[in-house]
Amino acid sequence: MTATTDPDRYAVFGHPVRHSWSPLIHAEFARQTGERIDYQAEEIPTNGFPAAVRRFFAAGGRGLNVTLPFKEEAFGMCESHGERALDSGAANTLLLDPEGRLYGENTDGVGLVGDICERLGGRLEGARVLVLGAGGAVRGVLGEILRMRPALVVVANRTRARAQRLVDERSGHGAGLLACGLDEIPVATPFDWVVNGTSASLGGKVVTIPDAVVAAETGCYDMVYGAQPTRFMSWCRERGASRVYDGLGMLVGQAAESFFLWRGVRPDPEPVIELLRKRLV
Ligand code: ATR
């Protein structure tokens, strides 16, 4: 007879976190892979994050996801870091390493790049990539985009200085990497990929950029998602782009990478993306 043990405990900490899809995504991953886990969403007071993390692991918790507004604070309290967390100064995945130290990694970039290159069949190597925005969302993925060795990455932001700061942090990187304002985007040739990492779509606003950045074959990716195409997605389609995607695949992809770091098993994002897509409509 085998002893019955409680499933390993995981959670996402955020504020707010009520609408998080993560518990559903990880429950689906667990079902798919036969792993026994319990995964909850917990809303943490904005001044209580470090104490909540310590309590969770002291009580035997195995891993955490961290979402807004705690990703930088999570990075700061980790005693060891993955390469991608170091790239971005933010951590969305926490666990205890074999020495019992708090380890943080950031899986957002892998989520985005995996979605583009594996699920959507895109190619970033040698590509000309335009990234819109220079806030936390872009900081979290820029290192991973650069790791794919694109020919050119232009980071364009409404506030040019923020884009410049992001680019300066990565000076010495092999790929061509430029910062500019939204009205200074070089448009001699359309981009291969345009990734919207601004929060404009969340407010139903469109980012004002030149029409010529997009052509029929440009891959257009909005890092946010919703039941309806975002304003950015509609804008791209109106300019003839046919490969236009939202960030649902990135959401599931970053979760899959967290699951892999915790369990050593890689779930298949596709059926979970399909399930969420149905729930969105
Ligand atoms: P996040 O963590 O989502 O990245 P953030 O750090 O507040 O949030 O960054 C929001 C990003 O969206 C910024 O790049 C912001 O541009 P500014 O740096 O100029 O503020 C961009 N953004 C938000 N609303 C926008 C709009 N209506 N048009 C263009 N850019 C917008």
Number of H/I helices: 10
Instruction: Give the overall pLDDT as a whole number.
Output: 95
> Which structural class should the secondary elements be placed in?
alpha/beta
Measured by DSSP, the beta-strand proportion falls in: 15-25%
**Computed Rg:** 19 Å
| CA(first)-CA(last) distance | 46 Å
The total of beta strands comes to: 12
Helix-residue proportion: 25-40%
The helix/strand order is EHEHEHEHEEHEHEHEEEHEHH
Question: What topology, given as strand order, has the largest sheet?
Answer: 2-1-3-5-6-4
Low-confidence stretches: none
Bound molecules: 2'-monophosphoadenosine-5'-diphosphate
Give the overall form: globular
Structure characterization notes:
- The chain has 281 residues and is an alpha/beta fold.
- Helix content is 37%, strand content 20%.
- The chain contains ten helices and twelve strands.
- The chain has helices at 22-33, 49-58, 71-77, 83-88, 108-119, 136-147, 160-169, 231-238, 248-263, 269-280, and strands at residues 8-14, 37-43, 63-66, 80-81, 93-96, 102-105, 128-132, 152-157, 176-181, 193-196, 219-222, 243-245.
- The strands form two sheets. A six-stranded mixed β-sheet has the order 2-1-3-5-6-4, with helices on both faces. A six-stranded parallel β-sheet has the order 9-8-7-10-11-12, with helices on both faces.
- A hairpin with a 5-residue loop joins strand 5 (93-96) and strand 6 (102-105).
- Helix 1 packs across helix 9 (248-263), helix 5 (108-119) packs across helix 6 and helix 9 (248-263) packs across helix 10.
- The longest helix is centred in the last third of the chain and has 16 residues, at 248-263.
- The protein is globular, with a radius of gyration of 19 Å.
- 46% of the residues are buried.
- Bound molecules: 2'-monophosphoadenosine-5'-diphosphate.
- 2'-monophosphoadenosine-5'-diphosphate (ATR) is lined by residues 133-137, 157-159, 162, 198-200, 205, 207.
